[in-house]
Design goal:
8 strands, 286 residues, 13 helices, alpha/beta, 12% strand, TIM Barrel
Length: 286
């Protein structure tokens, strides 16, 4: 295995073991990754929704896997930081198929992955605990065989999909996260609108670092700000597709103003910002 990849994987793992919270920005192309790096990020995540949208596909593994791998490769090759790739449900049906897909992503330059238990099917929104645990085990073995400690972040969609009482949802979340950690996950990811008491309970009961998401598009109510999340014991916070969606929203506002009003105040306001030139130069690697 490439020594530089091994070094980056070790660096990413240390960021999860630090007393400081890891703030992970999620890129959807080279330009966004470079902008995040220039802003001071310590690692880069990818957003599967953002990569898919930039290629004209909806979310939930609708983009051809080869195009997803190509995007990860371009991002990883454009920055000097560790890159962790959103692998959605793993791009495979069996543990061996998922491990094979993850191996391709490692060779593309990723030293961490997200893998989730959500299905996108409203009638059966979550796979069995054992199914994801088996996939995690296969991924861990494949990465170890390559000579790299891939940082696995196992995501459960209980707070996005599971109905029922708050207590039932909390109990299932804890059960799933601990099973995924036991199977070999380095971190567990619980997206959704989590209140402070829920976050405290998850931190206390889950035997692995906790990742939450700061993305107002899916976190309702919005989770606390990062300094408070750190005080609550959260180890990692990511932003998911939030920046990509915000960038598209700004682009749409600019288009509407130019086409409907014949003015360009929104565009000028952004271009007049002191960081506008810096962002562009970062995007092109200048």
């Amino acid at each position: 295995m490439n020594k530089e990849l091994v070094r980056k994987a070790e660096a990413l793992l240390r960021l999860h073991q630090s007393d400081r919270i890891l703030v992970l920005l999620n890129a959807w192309d080279v330009a966004s990754a470079r902008v995040f790096e220039s802003a001071g990020a310590h690692a880069i995540g990818t957003t599967s929704m953002g990569i898919a949208a930039s290629a004209g596909y909806p979310d939930i593994q609708q983009i051809p896997f080869s195009r997803m791998v190509d995007a990860v490769s371009r991002i990883a090759g454009a920055v000097n930081l560790p890159v962790t790739a959103d692998m959605e449900a793993g791009y495979g049906d069996t543990p061996d198929e998922v491990a094979s897909s993850v191996t391709r992503v490692i060779h593309a330059g990723a030293v961490g992955i997200n893998i989730e238990d959500g299905t996108g099917n409203p009638s059966s929104p979550l796979i069995d605990i054992s199914t994801l645990a088996d996939r995690i085990g296969a991924i861990r073995k494949a990465a170890t065989d390559l000579g790299i400690h891939l940082v696995i972040n196992a995501r459960t969609d209980t707070y996005l999909t599971t109905p029922g009482s708050p207590g039932t949802r909390l109990a299932e979340t804890i059960e799933r996260c601990n099973a995924y950690a036991q199977a070999g996950s380095d971190c567990v990811f619980v997206p959704g609108g989590l209140d402070r008491d829920t976050i405290r309970e998850l931190v206390r009961e889950i035997q692995a670092p906790l990742n939450v998401v700061a993305n107002p598009a899916i976190s309702i109510p919005v989770v606390p700000d990062i300094p408070e999340l750190e005080q609550l014991g959260v180890s990692r916070v990511s932003v998911g597709s939030g920046p990509m969606r915000a960038a598209l929203a700004l682009t749409r506002r600019i288009a509407a103003e130019v086409l409907n009003e014949g003015s360009y105040h929104a565009m000028k306001a952004e271009l007049d910002h002191p960081l506008a030139t810096e962002a562009y130069e970062a995007a092109i690697g200048k």
